[in-house]
Amino acid sequence: MDKIRQSTLHGEVAERVRDMIAQGTLAPGSRVPEKQLCEQFGVSRTPLREALKVLAHEGFVELLPNRGARVAKLTRTTLKNTFEVMQSLEALAGELAGARISDAELANIEALHYQMLAHYKNGNMQEYLLANQQIHEAIVVASQNDVLIDVYKNLNHRVRRVRFTAELSSDYWSQAVSEHEAMIEALRKRDGKELGSILSCHLRNKVEVSALEEMAE
Questions:
Q1: Which strand (E) or helix (H) includes residue 61?
Q2: Phi, psi of 60 (to 5 degrees)
Q3: Short-list 84, 77, 69, CA closest to 21
Q4: How far apart, in whole angstroms, are the C-alpha atoms of residue 96 and residue 23?
Q5: Residue from 139, 164, 162 nearest 152 by CA
Q6: Is 130 exposed, middle or buried (0-12, 13-18, 19+ CB in 10 A)?
Q7: What three-state secondary structure class fits 60?
Q8: 70 pairs with which residues across the strands?
Q9: Model confidence over 29-54: pLDDT tens digits?
Q10: Which positions fall inside the HTH gntR-type domain (predicted)?
Q11: Domains of the chain from N-terminus onward
Q12: Per-residue pLDDT tens for 67-116?
């Protein structure tokens, strides 16, 4: 991993640690290894600790008095509450994207959709989930609402490890693909109201109870 440029120290340290939490490299409940991260990033303790304060404010870590920080646990209640908010955000993003999406953005999402379908047909779940994630993020970006994008990005980081890594049953997987087909059709028609409704339903059904229970304390 490349060392961080001094000019972008504070924000990039926070972004790197966010990614490590989202990817499961730093597990829920584990202590944040400050010395190891400083060596890995090529920074001193000061910018790392400033980044941890930001991440604590965002809910990614918990600061321990005189004992550093630990990664916040995702409880069943926290996940439920987070997905309820994200459901509304994606529905709004869909409505806005229907009216604002550019031809280039639509073409990109269609390309990702066809990649996702290929992974589905080949039974490659991890690559399918990656393309799935990129589609949802691209629709949010197409809303062209910076506030919505920032809030969504923060919440999505928190739950990405659950949302885009859970094993899917064959029936649910098939249903999810059908819902994505409907999303693409709504985007092509620039029907934001329909797309928002589909996204809301899609996210409501996104994570199975078993996946939520896995993350519960």
A1: strand 61-64
A2: -85, -35
A3: 69
A4: 29
A5: 139
A6: middle
A7: coil
A8: 31, 62
A9: 899 999 999 999 999 989 999 999 98
A10: 7-74
A11: 6-71 (1.10.10.10), 76-215 (1.20.120.530)
A12: 889 998 878 888 888 888 999 999 999 999 999 999 999 999 999 999 99
